[in-house]
Amino acid sequence: MSNFGYNVLGFGSFPSRGGPPLDITYLVIAGAGGGGKQGGAVGQSGAGGGGAGGHVTGTATVSAACTVTVGAGGAGITGNSSTQGNDGVSSTIAGISTSSVGGGGGARGVWPTHVAGNDGGSGGGGCNNGAGGSGTSGQGNAGGAGTPSGSHYGGGGGGGAGAAGDAAGTNGTGYAGDGGAGTNTYSAWASATSTGDGGLYCGGGGGSGYVQSGGVGAGGTGGGGAGGADNVAAVAGDANTGGGGGAGGGREGTYPSKAGGSGLVIIRYSGTTSGSGGTIVESGGYTYHTFTSSGTFSN
Fold first, then answer.
1. What is the pLDDT of residue 151?
2. 3-class secondary structure for 87-146?
3. pLDDT bucket at 18, cuts 50 / 70 / 90
4. Rounded distance, CA 155 to CA 36, Å?
5. Are 88 and 106 in contact (CB under 8 A)?
6. Residue 17 has what pLDDT?
7. Tens digit of each residue's pLDDT (9 = 90 or more) over 260-298
8. Residues 169/210, Cβ–Cβ less than 8 Å
9. What DSSP element (H or E) covers 264?
10. Residue 32 to residues 64, 161, 227, 259: CA-CA distances in angstroms?
11. N or C end: fewer C-beta atoms under 10 angstroms in the chain?
12. What is the number of other CB atoms lying within 10 angstroms of the CB of residue 170?
């Protein structure tokens, strides 16, 4: 069954029956990647921001209860060692081919090694000329590369659903890359359900700056968290947006990297309420079921 096709889920697909068949449209957002961690010694480089969670959309006809799983964001990292960011966790609707891919963790900040960001729904940012991780086709974009040259090195920004992460600065200042922008394709859904970040989902996390100087990467619009530096704390991705976590900076483990934002599942159909599960809102002739944590949708 295709992610974007028309799927029919008949009797026998689930252990319990639902009501009459119901045509739905869905938005499934995975948990985002956490930012990478800069090392504790002077001379280490900035780390990569976490990639946004992948997003999948499509239509289906459901005839039975569906288990909805909302993925967690990749955890942040403490301590003064250089550590790769943690990947986010997939979100799914059981019985429909809707598995969104968790965002890729950002690259660890360790000079002079070239470290790539992790692949994911959107890829994590790279370090020291390391490439950004790859995004998943139809779900997200690549992370930005780390600084390719210069005496100071910033980390690349994590990719977002609407744009790739920015590469780190190349002028020797240690400036980090910004996270990629999220998507506003489903801004009407965000408005109706009071979710997202300014009507957007799945922004990338910002990279962290050089340990002694340099600017930090801004989080991508759509829930991405900003990166840190020697005296600046990173910011976590916003919950239930799939926004990437900011990369950590600072000596002696002062400033950890931050977690990616958790995922989200929204199911919509025409007319008044015909099902149960999640937070239910009727708006503009549609009914929305919003899941900010795992649960069951029944028609």
1. 64
2. CCCCEEECCCCCCECCCCCCCCECCCCCECCCCCCCCCCCECCCCCCCCCCCCCCCCCCC
3. low
4. 9
5. no
6. 45
7. 999 999 999 999 999 999 999 999 999 999 999 999 999
8. no
9. strand 264-270
10. 29, 11, 15, 8
11. N
12. 13
